[in-house]
Every structure is written in structure tokens, then in C-alpha cells.
Amino acid sequence: MKNYKEIKIGEIVTQDFRAAEIFKNAGIDFCCGGNQSLEQACREKHIDSTVLEAELTKLENTTVNALHNFNEWNLDFLCDYIVNTHHKTVMKLLPQLTAYTQKIEQVHGVHHPELLEIATLFHQINDELLQHLRKEEEVLFPAIKEALKTNSSESKKLIISEITRMKGEHEFAGGAMDKINVLSDNYSIPDDGCNTYRVTYKLLEEFEDDLHIHVHLENNILYPKALSLAILD
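The structure assignment produced for this chain is given below.
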């Protein structure tokens, strides 16, 4: 049985992706906040770490689905998976949520002033992620594939420079969604919320869940392995 207290959150999820659901239910960030130890994260959230340790220990006794063993995937395959799964989800939801957050702010903003900040934050997320995804698909991911294929020094330089910048962009998007979660009281629908209000909050929650997995795959698996590839002689 592992002693989970001092293991980083991101590492726990990297070793067993099923742990993501446990952390999600506990309100613990396993992507941008993945560098914290379990004990640190529980202390911040005022959670009894032994409860989460018990849940994590149960996972050790059940078989891992190979389809979710992302840490074993080849980097080029992982790049394609991220594009085909998570980039597609982001590109689908960004325009919808930009329009919906503005619409419910216009209709309900007088009684729910937090909607203006939510709409503003999501507009910023939209602008940031559109550029971020384009740079990954056009620069970083091709550089990773080129480094795997030819070991070229130019591709390695691109990997290092792009990842250094992109980690900061992840921090911004993750932090903005965390703030939206707080402002919306964990996507709680007020009594006067209309159908569009409900759809907007449901999609925001779906977007946040997908973003957490997306950023985890990059921050905790793809980026570290790509950087290791880039510094090899």
C-alpha cells in the first residue's frame, strides 16, 4: 500500500487516471495544482487526507483500463489524442459559451451582478485558448513529432521555448475557470434562472471538467516527457 500523503496530486493521477474522479469530487485541482502533495491539497481544502487515501488505496486493488493508461502512450499518439478529443471539445464549446455567458448577463445581470465578471472571464479564456490551441497544433506538436523522428536541434529548441510559455497560459485558463466556479457557486442555478441559464452553467461545468483532463495530460505527462526528449544529447 502506498503512502500517498507526500506524493504530488498530478503524479497520482498520472499513475492512475481513475484518481481524477476522486480529486474532482473533493474539489482538488489535479492539473494546474498538480504540483501539490496530497497532504498540502487536503490542508488547503480542509479535507481529512485519510479519507482520500482510503479511496485511492481501493483503486490499487482493481484493474486499470488500458485505454486510460495515458502515461504509457507514445508522445506522437498522445498529441493526436489531445487534438482529436480535447481541442475539438474546446473549439465546439468556446463560441457557444462566449455567446451564452453574454446573453444571460444581459438578461439576468441586474439581479446577478456576478454574471458580468463570468462573461468577461470567459471572453478572456476564449481569446487565450484560441491562440494556445493554434500554437500547439502548428508549432509544438509538430516539433515533438519532428524530435521523435529526426532528433533535430531546432525542434528541441521549439519544444523548450513553447512549453515554457504554454504552462503560463494553462495557469491563466485554469485560474479563470476556478474563479468562474466560485462566482457561480459551483454552477448552482438560482431560482429565477431560465433555460439558457441552466444550459450555460451545465456547459461551463462540462468545459471545466474537460479542461482539467486536457491540462493534466499536457502539464503532467506530455510536457515533462517532451522536455526530457528535448534535453537528450
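Interim note for the steering committee: Helices lie at 9-15, 19-26, 38-45, 49-60, 75-108, 114-150, 153-183, 195-231. The chain has two domains: 9-68, 73-231.
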